Amino acid sequence: MKLIVLSDTHIRSGQSLLDLLPEELISIIKNSDIIIHAGDFESLECYHELSGLGRLVAVHGDADVPELMEFLPERETMEVEGIKIGIVHKGQLTSDHVDGLRYLAKEMDVDVLVFGHFHHPIIEQTDVLLLSPGSAIVPGIAEPSAIELEISGKQVKGKVIRCTGDVCSYFEYVKG
After folding, report:
1. CA distance 15 to 36
2. Domain boundary assignment for the chain
3. What is the pLDDT of residues 59-87, one digit of tens each?
């Protein structure tokens, strides 16, 4: 099962997600079994564009329009091939230490916690796997990024996708 993990797209009304994402990343999204978005679409149009590309599981972020905050949950959990995945936007205030996120993952009873808000990729493995995809469009101090996950049995393989222009490069992470 292939999943693509995004967050913090921050697409304002009148902008198009598909115009701003690299073509290669759009292809990866379309070929994924599940799209996970950890909040801050910003506009309803962005949500609809992304949901039109495949099965979308998402939470709202703190910069989303009121319609999205009403429609999408603050937290979501799902199970993929026996792996429990939790999704939140803002799990703690800073990205310096992941202790708060680890405790949140334990509270949510998940094996993997996907979170956003920080605009740079984070992969931390303790007794749970903590993942932030960064932002593919508004990265702040990092390069634009997303995460691709492959789940098979009880094994989770992940790739950080770094995007510049229409070119994507990968960094692989394996848990299992």
Report:
1. 21
2. 2-175
3. 999 999 999 999 999 999 999 999 999 99
